[in-house]
Every structure is written in C-alpha cells, then in structure tokens.
Amino acid sequence: MIKVLIADDEILVRAGLKAVLPWEENGFNVVGEAWNGEDAYQKILALRPDILITDIKMPKMDGIALLKKLRKENIPVVSIILSCFDDFDLVREGMKYGAKDYILKLSIEPEQLLAVLNEIKQELQLKKTAPDDLCLQDQDLKSLFVNKLTNHNFFSKEQIKNILFNLGLSINLNHYQLIRLLPEKKIWAKPKEKRNQKYLYTIY
Description:
204 residues; disordered C terminus; elongated
C-alpha cells in the first residue's frame, strides 16, 4: 500500500478527499490527516507517508513553507498541491519546491486525482525495484566523491567502493565506467620541469 497524508485546515475538504476515491481498492492507504503545516510536518516524521496532499493556504505554517522545509531536510515524500483558481503564482512556487502536481480543491475530479496518484505510485514502485541505480542527486556529495578520487589517486574498484559506502552513495559499478583522463606530454613547455599531474574523473 502507498501511504497518503492529507493536510488542509478545512475538515470538509479533508472528508471530501477521503470520500472521493476508494483508496484501498486502488492501492492507497490514507494514514492520517493534518490541519496545518506544522501538524503535517510532525505527522510526516511520525507516519512516513509516501504521498502528501497539501493545501497551500493554512494557519501556522502554509503549504509553501512546508514544502520548503521538507526539501531542505531532504525528507522523501511526493507532494500534490490543493489550490484555488486564483492561486497560480503560489502553485508555481510550490512546483519549484518539489510539488509533483496540483488539484483544484473546489472542483476535484476523482479521475484526475486518481491519474496523478497512479503516476506517482508507478514512479515509487520503479524506484523500489531499482535500488542499485545511481543516486547522486545531492550535488555536494557528488562533488565530494569526485574530489576524493582526484586528490587521492584511487584506482582499484575496492577503494572506490569504500568511498561510496562512506559517503552513503548507492552506485552499482557494473553499470558505470570510471574514466581517468591524463594530460598529454606535448602540452608541457618544459618537459624536464617537475609538475603535479592532476587526474580528471567522469562517470558514464
């Protein structure tokens, strides 16, 4: 079951969302409800939902602030925004902070909502079936990985595996090639002069 959390300050909207679909028949389980962003954040930490359906305008912490916080803390939950007709600018900002899609809360079409949910479910299932795929989404970790290779001249596969393990990166080395590029000797103006040769690495 894909776990879903609904966040909206209007109890009728939350009840309507729960009633609009046969959730469990479609592989989803509504594990909780929240009435503002702070409440949603705490329940996300406790319940670990796969999908968050959140209103934009809520007291204490609105939906945009919630999405920013989740992205900053790298909390893995896929978000769908609930919006009104005049919330276009807020929807666009929410998409910038990682929202997958948006639904107009005053005219929710069950087919549209289910289509969005099924698309997310398919993506989540693909991720679960490919755990060894490349996971270099964090640019700081990627840079640190390349810097370690460059500065320490690691060559063996075991050494590289140790780096990946220590950084918490998941890469199946059977699927990628590590290429070391060396400068050509002809570029040196004075061949006898000692120079520190730098190695460049790239992953394909």
